[in-house]
Amino acid sequence: MNLTPLIREITDADIDAVVALWHAAGVAKPWNDPLRDIAFARREAHSTVLVAEIEGRVAASVMVGEDGHRGWVYYVAADPTMQGGGLGRAMMAAAESWLVGRGVWKLQLLVRGDNDKVKRFYEHLGYADTKSSCFQKVIAP
Ligand SMILES: CC(C)(COP(=O)(O)OP(=O)(O)OC[C@H]1O[C@@H](n2cnc3c(N)ncnc32)[C@H](O)[C@@H]1OP(=O)(O)O)[C@@H](O)C(=O)NCCC(=O)NCCS
What contacts 70, CB < 8 A, 6 or more positions away? Predict the structure, then answer.
């Protein structure tokens, strides 16, 4: 990476840029409201969104949190014009530090079954496929 990113917690002023980043990187999904997701992650101290700022612009993100047992990350995204330059690694390292600082010792994440490229990225960073299935149910409207 040519420019060292400033990795910090999201502020209100970053929200539009983060949503735009998620759309550009393909992590925004029609069934998730990104504004609601950001607000929900920021509502309490056990989760947040970290951003990488380069020359005043939001270049990457990770949503990180802990559920009382494990750490989780979502919305791992780098600006498509800057992918391959170390931002993804930097965001995962920042998420790991955030969790370790709170006493969390295992981090897990979900990758769609057909997303082999992203699986290889996480494997390269030392993550192992647990071969588990994710079960999900909507429990409130
Ligand atoms: C996945 C993503 C966040 C990775 O960010 P990135 O900035 O492109 O990745 P980096 O440049 O930091 O790569 C980190 C390391 O992983 C390696 N890597 C990246 N993709 C890889 C792949 N498909 N296979 C093998 N290694 C890979 C890089 O070579 C690099 O290695 P090094 O640090 O040892 O030199 C980014 O590509 C992205 O935003 N993709 C679209 C959104 C997405 O799919 N997010 C994940 C949702 S689960």
Answer: 104, 106, 107, 108
* Full domain range(s) for residue 59: 6-124
Instruction: Provide the CATH number for the domain around residue 119.
Output: 3.40.630.30
What is the tally of structural domains in the chain? 1
Centroid of ligand 1 to alpha carbon of 139 (angstroms): 33
> Hey, which bits of the chain come out as E strands?
6-9, 47-54, 57-66, 71-78, 107-108
Residue 126 sits at φ, ψ, to 5 deg, of 100, 10
Kindly report, residue by residue over 14-42, the tens digit of the pLDDT. 999 999 999 999 999 999 999 999 999 99
Q: Which of 54, 81, 89, 127 to mutate to test the pocket of ligand 1 (most atoms within 8 A of CB)?
A: 89
In this structure, the residue with its CA closest to atom 48 of ligand 1 is 111
Name the residue with the closest Cα to ligand 1, atom 20. 121
